[in-house]
Amino acid sequence: MAIDHVPQAGVNANAPQVAPLDASKLKITLSETLKAIPAPESLVFGGTMSDHMMIVTYHPETGWSDPEIKPYGPLTLDPTSSCFQYSTNLFEGMKAYVGSDGEPRLFRPNMNMARLERTRDRIALPTFDTNELIKLIKKLVVIESRWIPNVPGHSLYVRPTMIGTRPSLGVAASDHATLYVICCPTGPYFRTGARPLSLMAVGEHIRAWPGGTGGYKLAGNYAPTFLPQKLAAKAGYDQVLWLLEDRVTEAGAMNFFAVVKREDGDLDILTSPLDGTILPGVTRDSMLTLIAAHGSKNSLRNIPTSLKLYPHERTFTIGELVQWSEEGRLLEAFTVGTAVVVAGVGRIGSEGRDDIVLPKHEGSMGPIARALHEKITAIQEGREQWEDWSVPCS
């Protein structure tokens, strides 16, 4: 006998049902005055917002309000809101591109939504169907499509954000919430030109720890990284390489990869495992997939198909990086993330000295990083097809 629904213990089956998030109830109020589109070369990441935003709120008695796309503007929140007092804030980073057909498209939005669900549940915010949020994001991107720069290396950054808005100083989960999505056109994240990134290895300031929240996209994970980043900049480095008991974890707000030559001449490409201290990046997952497919269902440009690439998700230490560098086996290092896509690393140091100097390459990336960058951007922009990664918004 089929069982359609069994009330959970302690739940009143006769309690009124609150409204779910429903994209079909979307209300649209367009701006009467549109902003001027800045020149692509002038774009600074996060500096210019598009004309509109999507917003919807949750109340414990009524559920989700009708979502609205309206002109971009400030929020009005109670000073005691949980987001201010207890950092019940999460966000996602996504990008929209113009395809070869002129249509806007998103890159692997289902992965972002799966990560959003895990993060939302981790801080006990109200739930909703993320498929409905994807529909709302697609609609917003279509409305804002004139903001997508049709220039290589440029895109429309999309920031879904959810905050707890329970108006009380009580230390408890927020049963009120606001969910909103904003957009900004963006070009290259780092303005280093042909120079690769430099990283300062830091072990005294811990970005994430076992059993903590490093594997979730929480706003509270970022503020403690600002002081070490300032110290790295003062010491002449671009970003921080985060260590945990000498284990390499992440670089800045990005996932870190190392390319190590094997005894047989092939390449091991290593990144830290998802042990709870590492953010499960969408770009990270995509890179591992593309690396594993090289020579079979995929060919990376200017990388011989006879050269075997072995992706590894395993723990490795700063000491191992130094050893591989001294042996001449550390051929490349690079970072990946939604905002940066791929960035090459030129040197890694600490305590006023460079412990690792990577081989110099033409431009800012080594051949593996460059090939992966070219491949993934071709997929993101719809110039190449790969499974269902590039998703049209219309």
Automatic annotation (TrEMBL):
Pfam families tied to this protein: Aminotran_4 (PF01063)
Keyword field: Amino-acid biosynthesis, Aminotransferase, Branched-chain amino acid biosynthesis, Pyridoxal phosphate, Transferase
Gene3D superfamilies, A to Z: 3.30.470.10, D-amino Acid Aminotransferase, subunit A, domain 2
Keyword Transferase appears in the UniProt entry: yes
NCBIfam families given in the database record: ilvE_II, PRK13357.1
Family: Belongs to the class-IV pyridoxal-phosphate-dependent aminotransferase family.
PANTHER family, per database record: BRANCHED-CHAIN-AMINO-ACID AMINOTRANSFERASE (PTHR11825:SF44), SUBGROUP IIII AMINOTRANSFERASE (PTHR11825)
Name this protein carries in UniProt: Branched-chain-amino-acid aminotransferase
PROSITE patterns in UniProt: AA_TRANSFER_CLASS_4
GO biological process, one term: L-valine biosynthetic process
Provenance organism: Hermanssonia centrifuga
Catalytic activity as recorded in UniProt: L-valine + 2-oxoglutarate = 3-methyl-2-oxobutanoate + L-glutamate; L-leucine + 2-oxoglutarate = 4-methyl-2-oxopentanoate + L-glutamate; L-isoleucine + 2-oxoglutarate = (S)-3-methyl-2-oxopentanoate + L-glutamate
GO MF term (any one): L-leucine-2-oxoglutarate transaminase activity
Cofactor: pyridoxal 5'-phosphate
